[in-house]
Design goal:
It is a single chain. The protein is mainly alpha-helical. It has one domain: Up-down Bundle (Growth Hormone, Chain: A), CATH 1.20.1250.20. The chain is built from 18 helices and two strands. The chain has a two-stranded antiparallel sheet. A hairpin with a 6-residue loop joins strand 1 (27-36) and strand 2. The radius of gyration is 24 Å and the shape is globular. It is a multi-pass membrane protein. Keywords: Cell membrane, Endoplasmic reticulum, Membrane, Mitochondrion, Transmembrane, Transmembrane helix, Transport. Its main location: membrane.
């Protein structure tokens, strides 16, 4: 029996040595787990590949391109209203179509992500995103508002394939101590796209009265976004990989051991709907992110009401919100990897988002733009920084369910509340002004914070990794004792 154990250990060592010699995509770390490999009882290796950083960078890039298109109209809404001769509410729908499209399509897209994987989903996302940008190139005429809406619809379909991927990509490619950071990087790309969407359109499209000149500037904006989207599409086709040959964590080893025939998408959805802590998170996440969508969509209108002819500064304020949020996202992701305090961190950040929204609401009309920059930055740091917290907390509460499915439900809630809040806040601003509109959002942030406090912190993924580590340690001790 001792001879068999020695033979097994020797074969494992030889296999590890062979894997290390595979070339430039080589391993950063190899570990042994206590998970049976093929039922043979021999330990299965887990590995971190350097390629994981390239994969998450590519994802962040095409998420950036898509998020830019979501906000590129809203931040110059007064100019778009003039160019296409439509009402402000019609221009608001150029942003809200992203939210509306997500709701019916998220379930088939989540099913596709589970069945076909990351690469097919990435290819479809980029094909739709690229198509949307080129349709909009053809819409730079005052009588073609319908065409620009069609292009925005194609881009909004691409978003359905993108928003649920960060947590899934992080779990498939990254180690147990990196997943929250990797998810933050994935969300980082989306936030960077929103930041560029706030900054660039007011610079590229000045508020001029000559319609031909305005059409020229809008066409340039569309050509730039189409060129970037096309380049990223080509890179994804060439480089983007489905998954590493060897899984990065014990949790992924277990996930891969589940046969596709044993997995039912509808059964997974039903299990998630019966998961009370997760459903509380779905509602609270939707309230927070829905408020962010409303603020982003209506930012131009709020700033212009108090600071006329400040379109460029409105864009810069939006940029400040998102850049601060990107910093907040990365800090929160690193903090989660270090502490694993998912509920506590989520609740604190939620309460600080509410505080930031209150401060922003009561200082917007003071007449000092520098004050708005500061308060908007504080709001963005916590409200946008909340995004990866929600994703990662959801994965912990729902493991071993598909990350794409749990993320999809979170985002579906966010889109529903985003549409409701954008329409309602827009109407309130038109009738009573910006302060009542922002107080409206504060009320729902308070409700979301209370719901977050009731979430039971059942960290299932952490338990799975811990159990595997304990099992590995016990096997190692037994081997040494023998």
């Amino acid at each position: 029996m001792d001879d068999n154990r020695e033979d097994s250990l020797e074969k494992s060592a030889q296999n590890s040595k062979q894997e290390e010699e595979k070339g430039p995509d080589a391993v950063d770390r190899i570990e042994c787990t206590g998970i049976p490999n093929g039922g043979s009882g021999s330990p299965a290796a887990v590995r971190l590949y350097k390629r994981r950083w390239l994969v998450v960078f590519l994802f962040s890039s095409y998420s950036l391109s898509n998020a830019y298109q979501w906000i590129q109209y809203g931040i110059i809404s007064n100019i778009i209203v003039k160019f296409y001769s439509v009402e402000a509410f019609a221009v608001d729908w150029l942003s809200m179509v992203f939210m509306l499209t997500y709701i019916p399509f998220i379930f088939p897209v989540s099913w596709l992500l589970d069945k076909k994987g990351l690469r097919v989903t990435a290819l479809l996302a980029n094909a739709l995103n690229c198509a949307g940008t080129w349709i909009k190139v053809a819409s730079a005429r005052p009588d073609l508002f319908g065409v620009t809406m069609l292009g925005q619809f194609a881009s909004s379909l691409a978003q359905v394939f993108i928003l649920g991927m960060p947590s899934r990509l992080a779990s498939v490619w990254f180690g147990a101590d990196e997943v929250s950071t990797a998810c933050s990087i994935g969300v980082f790309g989306n936030q960077m796209g929103i930041a560029i969407g706030f900054l660039v359109p007011p610079i590229l499209v000045p508020n001029v009265d000559d319609m031909n000149e305005l059409a020229h500037h809008i066409r340039i904006m569309f050509y730039i976004s189409a060129g970037v989207a096309t380049l990223i599409f080509v890179l994804v086709v060439i480089v983007f990989q489905e998954k590493p040959e060897i899984p990065p964590t014990q949790a992924q080893v277990q996930a891969r051991s589940i046969s596709p025939d044993e997995y039912s998408y509808m059964a997974s959805i039903l299990r998630l709907l019966r998961n009370k802590p997760f459903m509380l998170l779905v509602v609270s996440y939707g309230l927070n992110v829905g408020c962010f969508y409303a603020v982003s969509t209506l930012l131009n209108r709020m700033i212009i009401e108090h600071y006329p002819n400040e379109e460029v500064n409105a864009g810069r304020i939006g940029l400040t919100i998102v850049i601060a949020g990107m910093v907040g996202s990365l800090i929160c992701g690193i903090w989660l990897d270090k502490t694993k305090t998912y509920k506590q961190t989520t609740l604190v950040v939620y309460l600080l988002s509410l505080t930031g929204m209150l401060v922003y609401a009561f200082t917007l009309n003071l007449g000092h733009l520098w004050v708005v920059f500061i308060t908007a930055g504080v709001l963005g740091f916590f409200m946008t920084g909340y995004l990866p917290l929600g994703f990662e907390f959801a994965v912990e509460l729902t493991y071993p369910e598909s990350e794409g499915t749990s993320s999809g439900l979170l985002n579906c809630s966010a889109q529903i509340f985003g549409i409701i809040f954008t329409i309602c806040q827009g109407k309130i601003i038109d009738k009573w002004g910006t302060l009542p509109g922002n107080i409206f959002l504060c009320i729902f942030l308070l409700i979301g914070a209370v719901l977050t406090g009731f979430i039971k912190s059942d960290l299932r993924r952490q338990k799975a990794n811990l159990q595997s580590m304990v099992h590995t340690a016990s096997v190692s001790i037994s081997a040494c004792a023998a």
